[in-house]
Every structure is written in C-alpha cells, then in structure tokens.
Amino acid sequence: MCLGIPGEVVEIMTDRPDLAQVDVSGVRRAINIGLLEPGEIGVGDWVLIHVGFALSKIDEAEARAAMDFLKSIGDAYTDELAALQNSKID
Amino acid sequence: MRFVDEFRDAEQARALAARIAARCEPGRVYKFMEVCGGHTHTIYQHGLEDYLPEQVQLVHGPGCPVCVIPMGRVDDAIAIARRPEVILTSFGDMMRVPGGDGSFLDAKAAGADIRMVYSPLDALKIARQNPGRQVVFMAIGFETTAPSTAVTVQRAKAEGLANFSVFCNHVTIIPAIKAILDSPDQRLDGFLGPGHVSTVIGCEPYRFIAEHYRKPLVVAGFEPLDILHSIDMLLAQLGDGRCEVENQYSRVVPWDGNVTALKVLADVLELRPFFEWRGLGFISHSALKLTEAYADFDAERRFDVPGVRVADPQSCQCGEVLKGVLKPWECKVFGTACTPETPIGTCMVSPEGACAAYYNFGRFRRQRLLQVSAR
C-alpha cells in the first residue's frame, strides 16, 4: 500500500480528464490523476502511483531507479503489482 | 565492512560509508530514527547497518500505517463486516492484522464478505455494482494514501452513491514524531524523514523538529544510497552545529508538497481530537475523520461501532518496537510465537513492519555476523 509504483502515461482520457492510462511493467491500467495540477502531465511522462492515484511526476531516470528498487524487494512488490493488475478503476 | 556485496553502486556506498565514519566524533554515539517503514525495509534488505560504524545506530520509527492500527479498530471493522448487508473492502496489507477476535481473514473464513482492493476507487466500483449492499472501505495510511480516500469520497458524493462509506483510520505523521520526541525513554540525534508522506505534506511541517527540539531531519529516498546519503547529511549538520530540515529526495518531493492533494484533504478530512495508536497510546490530533460536509459517508455514523479498546497481548512488544525502544530481535516472541505466518503483533504483518522486514532479511545477516564474530 505504501509502495510507490512508477508508470508511464500512455493516454490522457479525453472524456475523463481525471483519468489516464499508464503502462506499468508492460501492464496497461487506468489511474486517477486528479491529485496533480491540470495539464501537469502528458503522454510519455512518468508518475509515481499510490493506491491507483498519481501522486507525483518523476523523470525517467527516477522511474527506472524506483522500478529496480521495487523489483529488488521481491514479494511485497509482486503482491502490489498483482493488486494493481486486478484494479479496474473508472 | 563485512557482507557488503549485492547492491548496485556498492563502490559509491563504500565511499559514503567512509565519509560517514570520518564525520563521527570519537566516543559519541549517534541515534537516528528512520520514521518510515519503507526505509526500515531498505535498511534490512540491503544490510545497511553493516556499512555504518558502530557509533551510528538506526532506530525504527512508527511510520508503518498497518502497524499502528490498534486491535480495537480491527474489531470495529469486523463488527461492521459481520452485518449481512455489508461488503467490507480493504487493502491486502490489513487482511492478516490480528484484532482482539481474529483478523479480517478469519472473519472472511467465518462468512463475512470482506474483499481486497488495490485502490479506494475499486471499492467505489464495487458499491456501484452492488446497489443492494452497503460497501465500506477500510481506510488506512498516512498522508500518502489519505488524499486518495478523500478524492474517492468526493466522487461518491458527486455520484450520490448512498451505499458507500469509509471507516476512516487515516493517521498523520507529525503528532507521532512529536510523541516520540516527548517520550522520556528515547534519546535521538536526528531523523530520516519519510519520503512518500513528504510528497504530500512537503518539508515545512517538520520545521518545529529542527527549531523547537533542535534535531536535524533529512527527508530521504528509498534506495540504499539515498539512505546512506541522508545519514551523511545528518552527520554533516551535527558536525557544523546546525539543526535544519533538508530534502535529500528532492527529485520526487517538492518542498511545499502536493498543494492539490492538501486542498482535497482539507475539504474531506479533518483532525480527530485524539486517536489511539498501537504502542504509542492516545495521541491528540493525530488522525483524520470525515468532515461534516461528508458525514453521510462516515461508516462510524452509519453503523453501530462497538468502539471498545482492546489491550495488546501481554507477550507482544510492538509498542516498544514502534517507538524504537526495542529492536525486533529483542522482543520475547520474535520469530518463535510471532512469525509472518502467525503474527501476534502488527509489526510482523506488514512488509513495512520492522519485525517482518527483519524476519525476512535482517536475521540472516545477523546470524552470519554473529557466526563470524564467534570465530
């Protein structure tokens, strides 16, 4: 729950500007971007995701470092990623 | 410098470790608290204590939101979940946390409809799909997750979802740090500030720690090098006679935090007069509840909640571990009666709990270390 998972924004949903499609380790999921400033992120940007919400914009290097870190912690990350994969927010 | 191997940038780590050692005054012991459970996890996983001179001691703090939930609140949630009309939704982390009368998993096995969700928005979706049921979200977490709950409640209100409510257990980190600073049994020299919480609240709220308590605080990232770098920054401050709030994790944490998230929080959630923390007792203004404008979505108003205080089991020393007074392995039941499979206390449940982190990683290093020392 406390883990921040990096995701790459692949689509801002035009009919729902508070939602974006992100790619997390090859898995595409909708997340809420309502906690960021309107227009703060666009396609190709990276965000740190907590419980389905983008909480901060990060750069690609930070995203890679965060992902390496998450992979290194093993089970806790696998569980969190599995939970994210089952999440279908709208 | 034994067992320094597996993590990348080991060379940089050694350089930092050498600088840390050089900054230590002979004969002085430095105790730094890492507030966040994520930091505890990194420290044990990478054996960072092996890099540090013996003079620098890391003390684990209360920053694991699962760990600080008192047993009575788990029982209250289960009492709500046992109602036939209710679907209780919860993050997976909470499922095995023992209450006075079993955990969520036990209640689920006994027939209560308790479902794991990744996001509060998943709980909202379940409410939409089950108009004939009452869907309750077990909200836990520090300021990292509280804005997500707040947005979800705003959406529920906008959609007029009458069958959704929140059992709010959000806590705030600053009063917990203050309680530890005021506690007579803990003497600390500085703090590693929590990375993700600070993404929301920023660095300014920590200023009283530096100015009033005269302790330095460095907001730290989660990688091994981040933590070593932050320790180096703390020692540099102490060496210069400074007590400041510094931000080592500025690549993610803005100094002023997330202004949008803070606005949403202020709209939906407000401070409770007091709240019980496991191990730390009742701390005033340390937790959040729904504001009057969103009272219809407050599960504590919608359902009868027993609200009984349940004392921790006598054998459990999570309280001392959460305050940093005891190391996990010093607890009487650590690794014997209390394991991640059959936890007695919360610190053994969450992956961010000090006991679970130590059980999964640290104890092997310590065993190796003790074996080598004995030779």
Can you walk me through this structure?
Chain A has about 90 residues and is α+β, with helices and mostly antiparallel strands. Chain A is built from 2 helices and 5 strands. In chain A, strand 1 (about 5-10) and strand 2 form a beta hairpin. In chain A, strands 3-2-1-4-5 form a 5-stranded antiparallel beta sheet. Chain A has one domain (about 5-85): SH3 type barrels, CATH 2.30.30. Chain B is globular. The model of chain B is unreliable at about 1-5 (pLDDT under 50). Chain B is α/β, with parallel strands linked by helices and about 375 residues long. In chain B, helix 4 (about 105-110) links the parallel strand 3 and strand 4 (about 115). The interface of A and B includes residues 1 and 66 of A.
Using the coordinates shown, work out and report the CATH topology of chain A. Answer: SH3 type barrels
Return the CATH architecture of the domain at 71-171 and 287-302 in chain B.
3-Layer(aba) Sandwich
Query: What share of residues of chain A is helical?
Result: 25-40%
Global shape of chain B: globular
Straight-line N-to-C gap of chain A: 19 Å
Mean pLDDT of chain A: 89
| Number of helices, where a helix is a run of at least 4 consecutive DSSP H or I residues of chain A | 2
Let me know the number of strands of chain B.
13
Low-confidence stretches of chain A: none
Beta fraction of chain B: 15-25%
Main beta sheet strand tally, sense and closure of chain B: 5 strands, parallel
